[in-house]
């Protein structure tokens, strides 16, 4: 028969039923190690029970012996549990009280957790989901804004280059003068156009410095390399 467990509590399931040389356990045939193993598979156990009474040559499968074996094992386990709880009620009652305390704490924790979950759900619906929807739109808007800025910078660059090339055309059409000043002391047309050309070129250089990405546009690099003349029709 099963011996009285220590006052600290019941022995682990894998250790009972206990046996002795003079008093073997009544249910010693039950393989508790099998049932308590973390690798226990109900399907594999059921298959082994069926194969114990059935062979591949049988034309019919009789499940009654396997069912009787399982039901008998259940009855024996229930008897063992009843005996253990009866013999160790003094030890089990404090554990039951602790379980009730833990259950109350768990109920309070679950209530708080439900409140946190509801708050997070509200945050997700009101903030996270709209943010996830708006994020790709914001990304597309940022790219469009950058593209628009680049196009405006290219447009202004082309205007400055056209202005500079127009001044150069005017300079080329002037007749060579013997001096850079008129008789009255005023700058002649060539000198005046040269000053305008220098200012225009400086403005182009400053614009390229302010927008380095302009050089990623092919028309800008072609103009810098002298391939394109914006004044050409």
Automatic annotation (TrEMBL):
Domain Conserved oligomeric Golgi complex subunit 5 N-terminal: 35-163
Superkingdom: Eukaryota
InterPro entries xrefs: Cog5, COG5_N
Region (Disordered): 1-23
Biological process, per Gene Ontology: intra-Golgi vesicle-mediated transport
Entry's Gene Ontology cellular component terms: Golgi transport complex
Pfam families (UniProt xref): COG5_N (PF10392)
Protein name per Swiss-Prot or TrEMBL: Conserved oligomeric Golgi complex subunit 5 N-terminal domain-containing protein
Organism of origin: Lipomyces starkeyi NRRL Y-11557
Lineage: Eukaryota, Fungi, Dikarya, Ascomycota, Saccharomycotina
């Amino acid at each position: 028969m099963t011996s009285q467990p220590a006052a600290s509590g019941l022995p682990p399931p894998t250790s009972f039923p206990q046996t002795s040389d003079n008093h073997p356990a009544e249910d010693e045939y039950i393989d508790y190690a099998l049932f308590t193993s973390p690798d226990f598979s109900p399907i594999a156990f059921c298959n082994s029970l069926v194969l114990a009474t059935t062979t591949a040559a049988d034309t019919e499968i009789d499940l009654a012996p396997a069912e009787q074996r399982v039901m008998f094992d259940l009855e024996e386990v229930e008897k063992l549990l009843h005996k253990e709880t009866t013999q160790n009620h003094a030890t089990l009652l404090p554990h039951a009280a602790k379980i009730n305390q833990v259950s109350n704490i768990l109920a309070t924790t679950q209530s708080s957790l439900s409140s946190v979950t509801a708050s997070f759900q509200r945050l997700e619906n009101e903030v996270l989901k709209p943010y996830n929807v708006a994020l790709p739109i914001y990304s597309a808007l940022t790219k469009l804004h950058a593209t628009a800025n680049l196009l405006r910078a290219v447009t202004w660059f082309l205007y400055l280059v056209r202005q500079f090339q127009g001044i150069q055309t005017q300079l080329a059409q002037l007749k060579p003068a013997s001096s850079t000043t008129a008789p009255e002391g005023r700058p002649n047309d060539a000198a005046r156009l040269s000053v305008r050309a220098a200012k225009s070129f400086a403005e182009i250089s400053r614009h390229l410095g302010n927008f380095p990405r302009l050089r990623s546009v092919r028309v800008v690099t072609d103009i810098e390399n002298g391939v394109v003349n914006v004044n050409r029709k």
